[in-house]
Structure formats: structure tokens, C-alpha cells
Design goal:
The chain is α/β, with parallel strands linked by helices. About 45% of the residues lie in helices and about 20% in strands. Strands 1-2-3-5-7-10 form a six-stranded mixed β-sheet, sandwiched between helices. It has a four-stranded mixed β-sheet with strand order 4-6-8-9. A three-stranded antiparallel β-sheet has the order 12-11-15, covered by helices on one side. It is globular and about 80 Å long.
Length: about 375
């Protein structure tokens, strides 16, 4: 009797690795949402969706707690394994920040002086970046506000960035006791010139969305300010192409007098993400009308360049960042966390360097000399 070696089980398997218990709508948390795919006329494509992964901690500028990191990992794995999902949108709640990085209050209260614990946390953080880079769906970063520090790092792991033109971008590590080794030292040189990558990485300055668009870090900067039904580009930065003394001022801050008027205009206006979401949906619709496997092979081919340096350095960086929790991070994160009591979010850097020059022992006495005193 002939055997049927090709028996087929047509019941589709569920490849979701983590359950939905890592998602929560209460802040702080991560929200996972499915939205129908729509064309330019707003008509839905039946059975097809985009996955929206929301950082939900607006009271702390959407900084991610340990549990939120787990939620992001779960969200990207869920979206990656779902046949119905065309693309992933990584965004955040509110209009002030996409993400400002790790939760410094948690760092100061729990992880400082616990290098092993922070090493375990960095394993989760690395898995979060890996989850973005390995997602088998295109990933769009919808930037609703500032994207700095670790927020910039997880944002650069995505494939495309569509930004509010009020957003700013940058790093903060060297100012607050760390190094941007969660992706910025790996990714920035791919996006910017080596000189710009260096300065943006270590200066701890923030650059406007328009400046980042001009330099190639993001795909689009979209107006979100609305006044009497009129869309207004970010009035705090220059959006013309004027050149002053050989320097291009596009995306640079306006002068002091203009800034005062700009803030008055902003106070009379409202933030509306209608155009931002329209731009995001247009890209998702573009993705929908491409061969999905050809699309992902193309995306993974580009991602591989970012992943090459990320994979080379992520474990070495993990160990250094853990060890640093016994050193400068202990000072930096506690200084930041005690700003309300002291009025300062940084240590006395001059005193710090003076003590180092004297060969002082790094202990509690050292810390007392460089930390700001309560007001």
C-alpha cells in the first residue's frame, strides 16, 4: 500500500514566543496595537495590519524601565511572527518625547553599584536592539518628540524615521556618567560623516529634526504645530537655506528675539500629529504594495551593515557598562536623579578631574566632594 508521506496539516501554527503579559496600558508600560492597513483614500485592506509598539511613560519622557524593555522585546517578536502584519511602527505616548533612554531613577535607585544586575539588564537591552534589527517586518520610528540618549539608539536601530519637526536628537552619556554604547557608537558613523558622528556623540548637544534630515539621519521632518487651521513649521529653528559666513544655518536655532516670538506662537498653537500619521501610513501603504520577501531581503541587506559593528561590540560594551555602574555611572545617575533636591543634574566636573589628578581614592568621600548639596 502506498504511503502518503506528504500529509498536510493546514492549521496554522502560532510562532509568537512571548505571551501578551508583557504589554500594559497603564504607565509605565508598553502598548501593542494593531491598526488596519489603509490606502490613500482611507479604504482598509481586509485582514492586513500594521503593529504599533508604544512606549508609555510620558511622565518620565518615555524612558524605559526594565519591564518596558521586556515589553518592547515581546512586541517586536510578536509583530515579526504575525503573518497579517505588514510593518511595525515604533512610537511613544504624548507629544514631548519619543524616548530619553533608560530610566535614570531606576538606574540610580537599583542598578548603581550593582554591576552584575546592570549586566543582566544590558542583556535585555541588547535583546531589545536585536529584536528591532531582526524583525522580519519593516520598522518605522514615528518620532513624536525628543529622541535622545538610549532613545536615539533604539531609534537608529529601526529602518526609517518619520519625525515631528519639533523633535530634537542627540546623546547624553558623557554628561551623565555613561557612554552611548547601546548603539550610537556603532550606528552614528553609518548615518553621519565621521566628524558629525563624533561631535554629536560626545558633545551632548541636541540637533533639530531639520538639521538631522539635512544630514541624512532621518527620512522626513513633518510639521505638527497648528494655529487657526494653519500648519506651522518649527518656529524655533531656521528652515531656509541661508548661508551665513560660509555656514549653512538650515535647522539651526533662531536668534534670541525670534525665539521669544516663536515660543509665544507655540503657546497659542496646538500639537496635531495628523500630517505625521499621514506620512507614516503612506510609507506603510508603499510597503504593502511590494513583494514581502523581496522587501525583507532588501531591508536585511541594508541592516547587515549596522548589525556588523553592533554585533562586534555589544558584548564588550555590555561588560564595560556593567563595570561602570561601580564608577562614573554611580555618580552621574545619582546626580541626575537628585536634581529636585540639589537644583543640578550633573556633578562638579572640575572637582572630579582635580581629585583624579591627585590620585584620590574613588570612595564615598570622593563622591561627597563632587556631588551637589541639597538646597
Amino acid at each position: 500500500m502506498a504511503m502518503n508521506w506528504l500529509r498536510r496539516d493546514d492549521k496554522l501554527k502560532n510562532h509568537q514566543l512571548l505571551d501578551d503579559g508583557h504589554f500594559r496600558r497603564e504607565a509605565p508600560g508598553v502598548i501593542y496595537e494593531e491598526r488596519p492597513i489603509v490606502d490613500a483614500g482611507g479604504r482598509e485592506a481586509e485582514g492586513l495590519y500594521s503593529a504599533w509598539i508604544w512606549l508609555n511613560n510620558p511622565a518620565q519622557y518615555n524612558s524605559y524601565t526594565t519591564e518596558m524593555v521586556k515589553g518592547v522585546i515581546a512586541g517586536f517578536q510578536k509583530a515579526s511572527s504575525d503573518r497579517r502584519i505588514v510593518a511595525v511602527v515604533f512610537t511613544a505616548v504624548g507629544d514631548k518625547a519619543f524616548c530619553t533612554g533608560g530610566n535614570t531613577a531606576e538606574y540610580a535607585a537599583y542598578y548603581s553599584r550593582r554591576p552584575n544586575e546592570y549586566g543582566e539588564y544590558m542583556d535585555l537591552f541588547n535583546a531589545m536592539v536585536d529584536g528591532i534589527l531582526n524583525c522580519k517586518k519593516p520598522v518605522i520610528c514615528r518620532v513624536n518628540g525628543m529622541r535622545v540618549a538610549g532613545g536615539q539608539e533604539i531609534g537608529m536601530a529601526t529602518d526609517l524615521t518619520i519625525s515631528s519637526d519639533l523633535a530634537v536628537y542627540g546623546q547624553a552619556g558623557p554628561k551623565h556618567g555613561s557612554a552611548p554604547d547601546g548603539g550610537s557608537t556603532d550606528f552614528l558613523p553609518w548615518f553621519l560623516s565621521l566628524e558629525d558622528a563624533m561631535y554629536n556623540c560626545i558633545s551632548c548637544e541636541t540637533w533639530s529634526a531639520y538639521k538631522m534630515k539635512a544630514k541624512g539621519l532621518i527620512t522626513a521632518a513633518v510639521p505638527v504645530l497648528k494655529n487657526d487651521e494653519r500648519w506651522i513649521r518649527n518656529p524655533l529653528v531656521r528652515t531656509d537655506t541661508y548661508v551665513a559666513d560660509g555656514e549653512i544655518v538650515y535647522g539651526e536655532p533662531v536668534g534670541k528675539d525670534q525665539a521669544i516670538k516663536a515660543k509665544e506662537l507655540m503657546a497659542q498653537s496646538q500639537i496635531d500629529f495628523e500630517l505625521l500619521d499621514k506620512e507614516v501610513n503612506a510609507i506603510i501603504w508603499k510597503f504593502t504594495n511590494l513583494f514581502p520577501h523581496c522587501l525583507m531581503k532588501s531591508i536585511d541587506g541594508i541592516r547587515a551593515k549596522k548589525k556588523f559593528f553592533w554585533d562586534q561590540m555589544k558584548l564588550a560594551n555590555r561588560h564595560w557598562l556593567a563595570a561602570n555602574m561601580n564608577h562614573e555611572a554611580w555618580l552621574g545617575f545619582n546626580a541626575f536623579a537628585s536634581k529636585k533636591e540639589t537644583g543640578k543634574d550633573v556633578i562638579d566636573f572640575v572637582k572630579y578631574r582635580q581629585l583624579v589628578a591627585q590620585g584620590a581614592l574613588f570612595d564615598d568621600t570622593f563622591a561627597e566632594q563632587v556631588m551637589a548639596k541639597p538646597k
